[in-house]
Design goal:
With about 475 residues, the protein is of the alpha+beta class. It has 4 domains: about 90 residues, Uridine Diphospho-n-acetylenolpyruvylglucosamine Reductase, domain 2; about 120 residues, Uridine Diphospho-n-acetylenolpyruvylglucosamine Reductase, domain 3; about 120 residues, Alpha-Beta Plaits (2-Layer Sandwich), CATH 3.30.70.2190; about 90 residues, Alpha-Beta Plaits (2-Layer Sandwich), CATH 3.30.70.2740. The strands form 4 sheets. Strands 12, 13, 14, 15, 16, 17, 18 and 19 form an 8-stranded antiparallel β-sheet that branches. It is globular, with a radius of gyration of 23 Å. The model has no long low-confidence stretch (mean pLDDT about 95).
Length: about 475
């Protein structure tokens, strides 16, 4: 309470009562994460309609010393977007009402959007102008641009287009003191000092609230060729990747690998999904080529590379999609892994990246490492192989998980064992999901004291009261 008025009352007066949710029923969808693993109390959810209102919320929270938790689509896979069970309940600032596409500038290959725009809506608005916004991931129907920026999201297009950081030209941010920074430049060259937008990309809401962004667009591909392959092994998959890179250059737009355990989970738990190939195989790759022009030339190129791979003994089987519907069906299998895993049991998802050339060794050594801890434990592999990002998932059925003695400690040990293997190969424990709450211990363990000190100094300069997303990102 400040000057006799509660923060809730002040927020309701400023934003209007309909923009403040605080009943238990209204809060339910905002205070628990997608997988039901993290949950904590919030003072309320504020739903601002514009940047000025975001700034007012932040100023009021600051006056009352109340933490601020920025939230987008709440699809975080590391517990980053919901309150902690302990500590002072925050005000959740959910950006879903700020979903205006402000402008598409086709000639400049850019678009300006509000942070609450759902990623799929941004892709569609770009496509309507013959342009591509290339960040693409399984949660694109619900995650927001602001959330993808705050987590520097990756996904399936990184191989060709880079991650979110590579596709942001400018930002508008409300800082922890309530000031609004208008950095909405649409320039591709601007060497005028520190490039401040990068401080907010991947900051997971610890440095301010992203309210709008200028995004980089690309020509919309009109030709596609997609195939589902069964390589002999992860090393064979890498060799096939090399064949594609040599022959296709930047036309190679995705190269995704899953193992048979992961495919089995998808087929068993997601209705309508089946093995695209006639027989069972240990490894599966989805490859996509895209370009301007028409499909025929790309399909020919794809077929030629598959023949080469087959002649070299790298490939057990392959099927090429012959229509848009078949392409979509192959992608649906790939995009169903999170849904399947959620229904099938408890997956201890890791988010490692290693140099692409080290992926086969990583998979081998990480499998041995987890099986030393839990003999025979099934592992699921989902890899954005083209950029070395492997979701290596030690997996328990619900029954096995419930029967596991000391399971939290065991989960931590299994993750650490996998991350140690990645670290020894020059890798990281978080390639694209971020740190959130689930990887705080890994931050403390793997980041050097010098790097942590620099991060803390930056945080201190922007948020000296530590009100923004406390308990996330920085241990
Ligand atoms: P939230 O989950 O709401 O928030 C994530 C973090 O960003 C939190 O720390 C939050 O405080 C902060 N934040 C949110 N909005 C703002 C804002 N406007 N300003 C400042 N901070 C903000 N991720 C990948 O990288 N690649 C994938 O392939 C991928 N696949 C996924 C598939 C599924 C099925 C699911 C459920 C998730 C997947 N994710 C993936 C994770 C997730 O979708 C991404 O991290 C996404 O970028 C989060 O966006 P969001 O809007 O849901 O953010």
């Amino acid at each position: 309470m400040t000057n006799g008025i509660t923060l809730l009352d002040a927020l309701a007066q400023t934003l209007g009562a309909d923009a403040i949710l605080h009943s238990e029923a209204d809060l339910a969808g905002y205070i628990e994460d997608w997988r039901g693993r993290y949950k904590g109390p919030a003072l309320c959810v504020a739903l601002p309609g514009d940047t000025r209102q975001v700034s007012e919320i932040v100023r009021l929270c600051r006056e009352h010393g109340t933490p601020v938790l920025p939230q987008g689509g709440n699809t975080s896979l590391c517990g980053g977007a919901v309150p902690a069970a302990e500590g002072r309940p925050p005000v959740i600032v959910n950006l879903s009402r700020m979903r205006r596409i402000r402008r598409v500038d086709a000639a400049n290959n850019s678009m300006e959007v509000e942070a609450g725009c759902v990623l799929a809506a941004v892709q569609a608005a770009a496509a309507a102008e013959g342009r591509l916004y290339p960040v693409s991931l399984g949660a694109e129907g619900s995650c927001q641009i602001g959330g993808t920026i705050a987590t520097n999201a990756g996904g399936t297009g990184v191989l060709r287009y880079g991650n979110t950081r590579d596709n942001v030209l400018g930002l508008e941010v409300v800082l922890p003191d309530g000031a609004i920074w208008n950095g909405l430049t649409a320039l591709r060259k601007n060497n005028t000092g520190y490039d401040l937008k990068h401080l907010f990309i991947g900051a997971e809401g610890t440095m301010g609230i992203v309210t709008a962004a200028v995004l980089k667009l690309h020509p919309l591909p009109t030709a596609h060729a997609v195939a589902w392959l069964a390589p002999e092994s992860p090393q064979a998959a890498l060799d096939i990747l090399g064949l594609f890179q040599r022959a296709c250059g930047s036309r190679l737009s995705a190269f995704e690998m899953i193992d048979s355990n992961q495919l089995d989970v998808v087929m068993a738990h997601v209705p309508g999904r089946k093995n695209p190939l006639a027989d069972a195989h240990p490894w599966h790759v989805l490859v996509e080529l895209s370009d301007t022009g028409d499909d025929a030339a790309l399909q020919d190129l794809l077929q030629r590379i598959l023949e080469q791979a087959s002649e070299r003994g790298l490939l057990r089987d392959a099927v090429v999609a012959n229509s848009g519907a078949q392409r979509a069906a192959l992608w649906e299998v790939r995009h169903s892994v999170s849904e399947g895993n959620k229904k099938a049991g408890v997956g201890l998802t890791t988010d490692t990246a290693v140099p692409v050339s080290a992926v086969p060794r990583f998979i081998d050594e990480a499998t041995q490492a987890v099986r030393r801890l839990v003999p025979g434990l099934p592992v699921l592999i989902v890899a954005h192989l083209g950029d070395g990002n492997v979701h290596f998932i030690p997996f328990f059925t619900f029954d096995a998980w419930n029967a596991l003695p000391g399971r939290d400690a065991m989960a931590a040990s299994l993750r650490r064992a996998v991350n140690d293997v990645a670290d020894a190969l020059g890798g990281t424990f978080s390639a694209e999901h971020g740190v959130g709450r689930s990887s705080l211990a890994e931050m403390a363990h793997y980041k050097s004291p010098v790097e942590l000190a620099m991060m803390r100094a930056v945080k201190q300069a922007f948020d000296p009261d530590h009100l923004f997303n406390p308990g996330r990102l920085l241990p």
